[in-house]
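Exercise 3.2. Students should predict the tertiary structure of the chain below and write it as C-alpha cells, then compare their answer with the key that follows.

Predict this chain's 3D structure.
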Amino acid sequence: MLGRRPTAQSQAAFDGPGHDFKMTGREFLELDSPQQRLILERFKRMEMIQKMFNELPKADQNLCNHGKFFLAANSSLCGLAANNFFRGILHVRKASLVSAVPMAVIPFLSTAAVYEAFVHDPLFSGQLNCEVCAVIRGGLVGAVVGGFYPIFLAIPLNASLAARYMSTPLPGKENLLRYWLTTAQPVFRKMSVGILVQALTGLYLATKQHGIYIKMLLQMNTSRDPEELPE
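Answer key:
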C-alpha cells in the first residue's frame, strides 16, 4: 500500500486545484497585460515629452514653467483691489494688513495650483491634445479662479471685519443674501476689466503652451518612427 503509485485519476485530482490556480493566474496576467502596456506606454510618452522639453529654448521653457505665476500675480492684484473696494463700501479702516495678506496669498496659490492641475500637467503629460480644450481651460481658470474667486473671497473676510469693528450695520439672516448681492454689484462692475484681463491671459498662456507642445511633437516626429509616436 505504501509503495503503490497514484493512479491517473488521483494524480489529476491532486494536481487539479494547483493547475486551475496556475491557469487562473496566467489568464489574469493576460487580461491585465493591456492595462500594463497602457501604463508603460504612458510613462514612455511622458519620458519622451520631458526629454524634448529639456531640449527646448530657454524662452519656451520659462513660459511653460513660470507663465502660471504671471496669471497668479494678476490674481493677487485682483484680490487686493476687491479687498480695497469692499473695505471702502463697508467703511473698514482697521486691520488693513490682516486683510491684505490673505487676499494676496490665497488667490496667488489657488490660481497657480489650479492652472498647473488642469492645463499645464495634462498638456505636457500627453493627456490634453485638443487645442480648443486647452484654450478653454486656460480661459476658465483665468476668469473663474483668477478673477471671480478673489472677489468672492473678499466678501466673508470684509464682512467679518465690519462685524468685528462695527464699521457698518449688517442685516439679519433674512436679508443677508440680498444685502451682499447689492453690495457686491459695484465691485463686480469695477472688477470686470480685471476679470477680462485674467481670461485673456489664461487664453494666451494656454495657446502658447499648446503651441510649444505641438512643436515638441513635431520634433519627435522627425526623430522617431511614426509608429513609435504617441497618439
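Discussion points: The radius of gyration is 29 Å. Confidence is low (pLDDT under 50) at residues 10-14, 17-31, 226-231.
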